Amino acid sequence: MDVLDDTRFAELTERHRHELQVHGYRMLGSLEQAENLEAARTRIAASIACHAAIKVNTPLDGPRMEWLLAELAQTEHPTSCPHGRPIVLRYAWKEIQRAFHRI
After folding, report:
1. Domains in the chain and their CATH numbers?
2. Residue 29 near residue 39 (C-beta atoms within 8 A)
3. What whole-number distance in Å separates Cα of residue 67 and Cα of residue 57?
4. What is the pTM of this model?
5. Cα separation of 100 and 72, whole Å?
6. Longest alpha-carbon distance in the chain
7. Which of 51, 79, 54, 75 is nearest to 1 (CA)?
8. Which of 20, 40, 45, 76 is most exposed, with the fewest beta carbons within 10 Å of its own?
9. DSSP secondary structure string, the chain?
10. Dihedral (C-alpha) 86, 88, 89, 91: value to the nearest 10 degrees?
11. In angstroms, what is the C-alpha Rg of the chain?
12. Could you report the per-residue pLDDT of 12-68, keeping only the tens digit for each?
């Protein structure tokens, strides 16, 4: 999977411009009320990242899964989304067995 180039990013943001504006203003209240522009940009970037993310039940082939895991490993917080929600869960083997009524 290639990195999103400027042209493709512009296409995606233009297609979703109204939704991004509405969502951005809901998060900020208004630009005048934003505590600082950098914090506002960070929140908006996190929101865009989540909206563009691979969603549950999206079929992925082997190379795409490998790319995704490699990219994830390079992030500062590889076990959570930009909003802090977990994307990786750890279960003990006994918990898995119990869930499938094996013990």
Report:
1. 1-52 (no CATH), 62-103 (3.30.1540.20)
2. no
3. 17
4. 0.45
5. 29
6. 58
7. 54
8. 76
9. -PPPPHHHHHHHHHHTHHHHHHHHHHHHS-GGG-S-HHHHHHHHHHHHHHHHSPPTT----HHHHHHHHHHHHTSSSTTB-TTS-BS-----HHHHHHHTT--
10. -170
11. 18
12. 777 777 777 777 667 666 555 555 667 777 778 877 877 777 787 888 899 998 998
Query: CB–CB of 22/46 below 8 Å?
Result: no
Here the tokens at position 26 are 């809901």
Question: What tokens does 32 get?
Answer: 């005048």
Burial tier of 67 (Cβ tally within 10 Å: 0-12, 13-18, 19+):
middle
- Cα–Cα distance between 26 and 20 in angstroms, integer? 10
